[in-house]
């Protein structure tokens, strides 16, 4: 299956470089280019994109607003957004995840990392680039929610619908572990882990694993460790 990729960046030179890289892969193709967020939302629907590489800062409708629009549109439920940031320590990183992005990647990432990011996002996995550690996410969440103490009450209440095993798996997902790693830790099969993850996503209204990570922190199930 070919992964259909949409490029959204206001810098034409960067889009051209990304296009050459993506189109060189046998399992993916660029189906459109957008110079602002509004165009990205329109093309995501028109071109049936699977993954959008979305720059956060663009004129007019920025990447954050565009991601919210994509996430809120039932017709685009299958679309995964990977945010591109100039600096990985970016004040919008967690806002991007909350808006519905599957993850983020620094523009200085290696070509192999970018291609891997597209494949990971297309597969529905949470994407945190190698340079963006779990501690970074935890730090941003701590800064955003530290004054709230008990975490987000809505998410906390939803956790009540999870079984004990689903909560246990959610903690592992928030720790950045893959299904295989979680299966080994809990001594169950990867298929069983996948089932628990999918059920947790359905009960918590999460689009993908990235959203599960945010919910786990915002609800207070997992406490940020700021180092």
UniProtKB/TrEMBL annotation:
Annotated organism of origin: Streptomyces himalayensis subsp. aureolus
UniProt record, GO biological process: phosphorelay signal transduction system; regulation of DNA-templated transcription
Pfam families in the cross-refs: GerE, Response_reg
UniProt keyword annotation of Secreted present: no
Species classification: Bacteria, Bacillati, Actinomycetota, Actinomycetes, Kitasatosporales
HTH luxR-type domain segment(s): 155-220
GO MF, one example: DNA binding
Start and end residues of each Response regulatory domain: 4-122
Alphabetically ordered keywords of this record: DNA-binding, Phosphoprotein, Transcription, Transcription regulation
InterPro entries hit by this protein: CheY-like_superfamily, NreC/VraR/RcsB-like_REC, Sig_transdc_resp-reg_C-effctor, Sig_transdc_resp-reg_receiver, Tscrpt_reg_LuxR_C, WalR-like
Residues modified to 4-aspartylphosphate: 55
Protein name in UniProt: Response regulator transcription factor
SUPFAM superfamilies: C-terminal effector domain of the bipartite response regulators (SSF46894), CheY-like (SSF52172)
């Amino acid at each position: 299956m070919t992964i259909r990729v949409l490029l959204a960046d206001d810098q034409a030179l960067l889009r051209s470089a990304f296009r050459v890289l993506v189109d060189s892969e046998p399992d993916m193709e660029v189906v459109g280019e957008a110079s602002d967020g509004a165009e990205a939302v329109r093309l995501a629907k028109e071109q049936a994109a699977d993954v959008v590489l979305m720059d956060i800062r663009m004129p007019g409708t920025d990447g954050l607003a565009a991601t919210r629009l994509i996430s809120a549109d039932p017709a685009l439920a299958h679309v995964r957004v990977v945010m591109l940031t100039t600096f990985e320590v970016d004040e919008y990183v967690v806002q991007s995840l909350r808006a519905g992005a599957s993850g983020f990647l620094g523009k200085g990432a290696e070509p192999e990392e970018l291609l891997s990011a597209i494949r990971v996002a297309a597969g529905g996995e949470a994407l945190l680039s190698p340079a963006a550690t779990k501690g970074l996410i935890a730090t941003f969440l701590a800064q955003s929610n530290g004054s709230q103490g008990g975490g987000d009450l809505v998410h906390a209440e939803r956790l009540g619908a999870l079984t004990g095993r689903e909560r246990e798996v959610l903690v592992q997902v928030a720790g950045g572990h893959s299904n295989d790693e979680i299966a080994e830790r809990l001594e169950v099969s990867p298929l069983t882990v996948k089932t628990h993850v999918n059920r947790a996503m359905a009960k918590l209204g999460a689009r993908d694993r990235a959203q599960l990570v945010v919910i786990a922190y915002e609800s207070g199930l997992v406490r940020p460790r700021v180092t």
